[in-house]
TrEMBL record:
Ketoreductase domain ranges (all copies): 7-169
Source species, domain of life: Bacteria
Lineage: Bacteria, Pseudomonadati, Pseudomonadota, Betaproteobacteria, Burkholderiales
The family this protein is said to belong to: Belongs to the short-chain dehydrogenases/reductases (SDR) family.
Protein's name in the database: Oxidoreductase
């Protein structure tokens, strides 16, 4: 079931921030791109409209990564429209902070459901629809290496789990030459940390936060044929923040 040219991408969580930049970059790279969103229908539609104005193929699907049925629906909707998947980017993620003495059970469950279970189920749902030689790319975080702040234990737990799961899944899918890699950004200028950008820039060796486009550049490389010998890797892109 190999396609001649790898050409369809699905981005989980593509309406804002790093995911939106990944959608736009993959569109520019020549993919038909479907992406999911939850609470930003207007932003999702704007991305589709802008793509269509340029003659590019984009599709927005409302699907909460905490909901296994919604994940499966997103995958089948994408493949019915665009065919088998060459690239999957699992970007959807949430950040809730709190020290261990304050974290409520529903916060813990929500973070695990989106950032860990949702990542696993998203990849699992795509497996029957991946072309041989496809690319699976997760978005973890450099907090899997070093956090530096109290209050991030749950987030760190989830992103460490992603760095671990890509290794196991990479071995599972290696017989089909499907590669599975994890991008670990440091502080990036998105809504997720818009309240702390100055402080984060100050702490960075490069004295700035990163842009979503810079992360999308690494995603583009991992999606490309050039990355084909890399699998199970976690690649940190954080301005030297964990050095
Ligand atoms: P944003 O909060 O700016 O955007 C999150 C995106 O994910 C939105 O498109 C949102 O859709 C979508 N999303 C959120 N929850 C769900 C869900 N349950 N199901 C489906 N989609 C969902 O985040 P960033 O762009 O900053 O972060 C993207 C990823 O990068 C996350 O995994 C994050 O942990 C990781 N990361 C971010 C860093 C940063 O500094 N920004 C640093 C390291 C890692 P909608 O708006 O429609 O709800």
């Amino acid at each position: 079931q190999e396609q001649d040219s790898r050409k369809t991408a699905l981005v989980f969580g593509g309406s804002r921030g790093i995911g939106a930049a990944a959608v736009q970059r993959l569109l520019a790279d020549g993919y038909a791109v479907a992406f999911t969103y939850v609470s930003s229908p207007d932003k999702a539609q704007a991305i589709v409209n802008a793509a269509e104005q340029e003659g590019l193929q984009a599709l927005a699907i409302q699907a909460d990564s905490a909901d296994p049925a919604a994940i499966r629906h997103a995958v089948t909707t994408t493949t019915e429209r665009f065919g088998l998947l060459s690239v999957v980017v699992v970007n959807a993620g949430i950040l809730r902070l709190g020290t261990i003495d304050t974290v409520e059970l529903d916060v813990l469950d929500q973070m695990l459901n989106v950032n860990v279970r949702g990542v696993y189920l998203s990849i699992q749902a795509t497996v029957p629809y991946l072309v041989d030689g496809a690319r699976v790319i997760t978005i973890g975080s450099n907090v899997a290496i070093r956090t530096g702040f109290a209050g991030s234990s749950v987030y760190q737990t989830t992103k460490s789990a992603v760095a671990g799961m890509v290794k196991g899944i990479a071995l599972d899918l290696a017989p089909r030459r499907i590669t599975v890699n994890n991008v670990q950004p440091g502080p990036i200028d998105t809504d997720m940390n818009s309240d702390h950008l100055d402080m984060l820039a100050d702490l960075s060796p490069l004295k700035r936060v990163g842009t979503a486009q810079e992360v999308a550049g690494l995603i583009s490389y991992l999606a490309s044929d050039a990355s084909r010998y890399m699998t199970g890797a976690s690649l940190t892109i954080d301005g030297g923040g964990t050095l």
